[in-house]
Amino acid sequence: MSSFPRFTGKVALVTGAASGIGRAAALAFAAEGARVAVLDRSEDALRGTADALAKAGGEVLAIACDVSRPDEVEAALARVVERFGRLDCAFNNAGVENKATPLHEIEIEEWDRILDVNLRGTFLCMKHEIAQMLRQGGGVVVNTASGAGVRGVAGGASYAASKHAMIGMTKSAALDYARRDIRVNCVLPGNVATPMMDRFTDGDIQKAIDLEPVGRLGQPEEIAEAVLWMCSDLGAFVTGASIAVDGGWSL
Questions:
Q1: What is the pLDDT of residues 84-111, one digit of tens each?
Q2: Long-range contact list for 68-74, CB < 8 A, 24+ apart?
Q3: Membrane-spanning regions, if any (predicted)?
Q4: Which of 16, 85, 96, 160 has a 20 to 30 A CA-CA distance from 117?
Q5: Considering the entire predicted model, what is its pTM?
């Protein structure tokens, strides 16, 4: 645990927590004293994260939840509040990638799949997270957007659309609740060493490395540290921001 834990007595929720950035963020929150709720689609997939948190001495609640389903999200948030009594920090990280496809070849079902998880899922989580934060008098939300939210990506129209829209939603929500002690921000990862990146590149990670001006992939822990900063008191004057942690990829 950190010598100066920033989240002692706080409750954090992380979606997409089974692996990658979400897992790293959950572990980081716990290391800094938070009680942590971790969500992902599969309870089996979450087991590794939950076990790691428990072994580190953290208090954890693992919930299987498809964030694109309103009933599951509402039930998950109710369980978090029932268990921990409040929600101070929400990191909406759950997302899916697309296969590189020119726009005119994108199947309607594939378009809906990407938008349902990345955009609708984030909206549904925010809806219930913010409602709880209003009841308790404040909180912080961070959404995982992408460098693809501020630039075009050949073959990635559906993914880029979901992330551009997420940034607009984040900015609007930040204004909605700026005087209610609720901050809402985005983190924009670049190419990060995660299972999603493995799938997106079909295992040819060098393709992703070649796109990075710094000449390497980011690590999930580097993204997690930015998220924790935004959620901490050190980021208290930051809302509606989209902070790139991408090695210069979006420049």
A1: 999 999 999 999 999 899 999 999 999 9
A2: 68/116, 68/117, 68/120, 68/121, 68/124, 69/124, 70/124, 73/121, 73/124, 73/125, 73/127, 73/128, 74/128
A3: none
A4: 85
A5: 0.95
Determine whether 159 is an active site residue.
yes
Q: How far is CA 32 from the centre of its chain?
A: 18
CATH architecture of the domain with range 11-245: 3-Layer(aba) Sandwich (3.40)
Nearest CA among 155, 150, 156 for reference residue 188: 150
Helix (H, G, I), strand (E, B) or coil at 230: helix
User: pLDDT tens digit string along 108-163?
Assistant: 999 999 999 999 999 999 999 999 999 999 999 999 999 999 999 999 999 999 99
Phi first, then psi: what are they for 245, rounded to 5°? -125, 75
Which one of the listed residues 29, 159, 177, 249 is annotated catalytic?
A: 159
Output the average pLDDT for the chain. 95
Tokens 């834990």 identify what position? 5
Tell me the mean pLDDT in the region 185-210. Answer: 86
Strand order in the sheet with 35-40: 60-64, 35-40, 11-15, 89-92, 139-144, 182-189, 242-245
Q: Which among 184, 191, 198, 248 has a CA at the least distance from the CA of 220?
A: 191
